[in-house]
Amino acid sequence: MGGRLTRVFRNFNVENRARRVISKEKPTPAPRHRTARLDTMADSPEIKEEVLRKDDRFLTLLKDVYVESRDPPVQVKDGGSEHLPSKQKEKRLTKLGHLEALDIKKVSKGKISLVEALTLLNNHKLQPQIWTAEKIAAEYSLELKDVNSLLEFFIPFTVMKFPKETKKAITSHKPKQLT
Q: Which of 35, 50, 56, 74 has the fewest Cβ atoms surrounding its Cβ within 10 A?
C-alpha cells in the first residue's frame, strides 16, 4: 500500500517538471586558464627560433656515442611444465610415530606437521620434566618462543571412560512420580 502512494507522488506532474529542467539555460562553463608556456612561445619568436635551432656541438657529441645492444642467450629449461620454487627452503624429515601413513614426510624448518604437534603436546603433558620447551625446540627445529606459546595455549584432549557401576547407578535411578 505504501509503495502505491509513494509512486503516485513521485509520478505527479512528471512531464511538466521534466520540461522545466530541459528548458533551463545551460550554465556557462568557467573560463579556462591560459598556460604560461603557450603564451610565451606565441609572443616571442626568439624562443621558437631557439627551440628549432640545431646545436652543432651537441650533434658532434651525439655522433660519438655508439650503443650496441645484444639479447642475453636464451636458456632452455628442462622439466617441461614443472615449476620450480624461486626460493629453496631447508627441509627436515618428520619424526613419525605410529601414525606414519597419515602424515607428510618432509616439513620446512621452523614448522611442524599436525601429527608432530599432537605428539609433542602429548609427550609434554605426560612427561613435562623430560619434554621441556627447550628440548622440544631443539628436537623439532623450532623457536623457543613459539614452543612456549604452543605449550601454553594448546592442550590435547583426554579421553575418560566412566566405570560401569556409575552407569548402572545413573540408569537405575527411579524418576519421581508426579501426582
A: 74
What pLDDT is recorded for position 98? 53
Amino acid symbol at 28: T
User: Which 8-state DSSP code applies to residue 131?
Assistant: S
Rounded distance, CA 152 to CA 14, Å?
71
CA-CA distance, 94 to 109, in Å (whole number)? Answer: 10
- Return the C-alpha cell found at 88: 629453496
Is 45 part of a structural domain of the chain? no
Q: What mean pLDDT comes out for the span 101-109?
A: 69
How many CB atoms are closer than 10 A to CB 34? Answer: 9
Q: How confident is the model at residue 130 (pLDDT cuts 50, 70, 90)?
A: very high
Q: Is residue 58 part of a domain?
A: no
Boundaries of domain holding 103: 91-153
Is 108 among the domain residues?
A: yes
- CB of 106 closer than 8 Å to CB of 94: yes
What's this model's pTM, rounded to 2 decimal places?
0.38
Q: What share of the chain is helix, strand, coil (3-state, %, to 5)?
A: 50, 5, 50
Counting the structural domains of the chain, the total is 1
Whether residue 35 is contained in a domain is answered as no
